Amino acid sequence: MRKVLSIILLVTLVLSLAACGTTTTTTAAPAATTAAAAETTAAPAETPAVEKIVLANNKVEIDEQLKAFAAEYSKTAGVTVEIATTGGGADYGGNLKAQLQSGNMPDIFVIEGPAGYDDWKDIIADLGDQPWAADTDYAYSVDGKTIGFPVAIEGYGMAYNKALLDKAGIDPKTLTNFNAYKAAFEKLDGMKADLGIDAVVSMAASTATGMTWVTGLHNFNIYLTAGLPYGDTTVIDKLLAGEVDEARLTQYAEYVNMLFQYADKEVLLNGNYDAQAQAFAAGKTVFLHQGNWVDPTLKTLEADFEMAYAPHAPFVEDTDGVLAAPPSWYVVNGDSAGAEEAKKFLNAIATTEAGHSYMVEAAGMIPAFKSVKLTPAVPLSKSIMEWASAGKTYSWQQYKMPSGFGMDTLGPIYEQLASGAVDTAGFVELIKGEVATVPDLLG
Amino acid sequence: MNNQGMKQNNRLVNALFLAPSLTAFILVVIIPFFMGLYFSLTDWNGAIQDKINFVGLKNFSVIFSDVKFHYSFLVTTVYTAANVIVINLVALTLAMMVTSNIKFRNFYRSGFFTPNLIGGIVLGYVWQFIFVNAIPGFAESMGIESLTSSLLGKGSTALAAIVIVGSWQYAGYIMMIYVAAIQNVPVSLLEAAQIDGANFLQRTRAILVPLVAPAFTVSTFLTLVNSFKQFDVNVSLTNGGPSGQFAGKVVKATEFLALNIYNTAFTRNRMAEGQAKAVVFFLVLVIVSLIQVYFNKKKEVEM
User: What tens digit of pLDDT does each residue of B184-219 get?
Assistant: First the structure.
């Protein structure tokens, strides 16, 4: 008995040691990278000053392609470019702050607008003298200083499956106002069996799967800019002062409600990004509420039907355009010893053929540089590019909201509407209540 | 060597043995704790800032009027209560099972302990798949209507889901504490009671439970503190979702305190406010733990 007991205790001890072992290794890993980073920053300024620079990427969709380009670049540049990706609902900004605290700040990182700029303005390097700066209209500039390298132009609207719309006899060009959408949704909903679809719209609003960026940021931006001249800030300025445009918000709420009503309920309430894309790619829905960044995912899912964008049209009046802008900019950490190498890498993306090919052909992005002659081969990006070159775009103002306000505060309200816990009137009241707190948040 | 010198020598050895862990403890717990106290009284934003201003108790007045924080407190309390009860019941049952005369009991012992070796984040994602895909898929093919929608879709069931995963992860560990305690109970006592005609329930109630009471103290303390601090499973399983309503505001139905603090600090970028919440969190945790240990200690029986 005693022997058995001692063996058991020994096993327990070993098991708990093993448990400790795992935790130590997991915590040891970042420590190791910190040490490596410390080494690189501590290295004396020889040529090249550093052996490795780190780009903190926030777009999971282009992770592979960017890594491939970086690996190719590293071969000839004499410096290793490491791509560290966080995204897809993970907390990029939080990560950056943690990295700063651990002395592991990347050489190139991403800002998404004024909030990011304010957080990091003290270390962001001036890129005005870079060759690519004159080649774009979309660089991030503050007080005449160019600091941000536009990663791409992105846009979103209602992506539609052309084959299914044709079958239902609906012309996507007519989808420019609330009533047109309403009629189309009703018609498609009535033809579910004929079309072989589960629902009309594929959209996700779940807080649990982190999809509140689709609702609280992108969908909410429809309220902020749809139908307004490009770059118009009336609605966002009002929001920042704690007020809403009640008539506009009410109409918008009806539109959101309609999208939810015709959405696949399982995807809407429990789905993640993949589930949302899958439903559309498999031809189980006619519309997809996602931007052109979904192209590579759809390609992987072998969605080979013809698709393009129709506008988001929440109002009785026509809104004939998609919501497009450079959503993020690469900025260079001026405090880093690798700053010069970082600038060279960005330049390689914007000015070399390999860089152009990476942006357009590999990653399927819409380049923000005029000298790029390639056009995206993937359908949704192509569609955004067509809308953009026709001048039919509405801007992105959602990133002017306080940090986390869209995803963390507004997002759950959308989920309440999606689950039927509130009606549109309740939805409007809840949004109003939260918007009223914005001046305090900014104060 | 005289007695005096021996004592001093012992003291030095003790200090030397303590030094490494004490240094680590001071560096990663004590110093950050006081830094945190200081930051909770400032307008610190976590990023690069020209000057950190002292703002007194402003952060505390903000968080005490924050409905979402109140809700997090409430839901964390509910979760902790449920989790402490479930984990201890399950662990005690398992412990009694693996100390009884069943076959393969050593195999069970390691089996029940294994989930504890898997990190909470991994567990959360695995169980998210089980709740969102596996169970509804299975229910659909079997025609069980009540299980076809995900447990994570509703606030109350999502909370239950976290309790299930939390217990699954932690019950095996607590079981080990009970196993050790049960094996310390002299067999003679139990046998004597058996000869006197006491049945299983009577033996458990009158002999086992009082003698295992020190293990109850340790186990409730561990589960209480661990449940209250629940973070990793919370993040990966529900991320605080789904949404719910509380006092006229939309809240995240399963956003526990630790996650609320994290979101305040890192998602909403309100570092000092998050720090103030963490201070309150710490105080509550200390008070609750002290009360719990005090009352449980009273019930223990010394042999």
Answer: 888 888 889 889 988 888 888 888 888 888 898 889
| Whole-number Cα distances in Å, B199 to A38, A364, B99 | 67, 74, 17
Q: Coil, helix or strand for A84?
A: strand
Q: Residues in chain A, how many?
A: 443
- At A285-339, the pLDDT tens digits run 999 999 998 988 998 999 989 999 999 999 999 999 999 888 889 999 999 899 9
Q: What is the ipTM of this complex?
A: 0.81
* Residue B279 near chain A (CB below 8 Å): no
Distance CA A301, CA A132 (A): 35
A12 with B150: Cβ contact below 8 A: no
Domains of chain A: 48-153+327-370 (3.40.190.10), 155-324+386-442 (3.40.190.10)
- The architecture of the domain spanning B59-299 is Orthogonal Bundle (1.10)
Q: What would the pLDDT profile of B12-30 be if each residue is shown by its tens digit?
A: 898 899 999 999 999 999 9
**Does B183 touch chain A if contact means CB atoms closer than 8 Å?**
yes
Does any CB of chain A come closer than 8 Å to the CB of residue B36? no
Sequence-separated contacts (24+) of B18-25 with Cβ below 8 Å: none
Q: How far apart are alpha carbons B13 and A439 in whole angstroms?
A: 59
Test mutation, B28, B116, B243, chain A, max A CBs within 10 A: B243
Where does the pLDDT of residue A47 fall: very low under 50, low under 70, confident under 90, or very high at 90 and above?
low
Q: Counting every residue, how long is chain B?
A: 303
Helices and strands of chain A, counted as H and E runs: 20, 13
In which residue are the tokens 């029940």 written?
B112
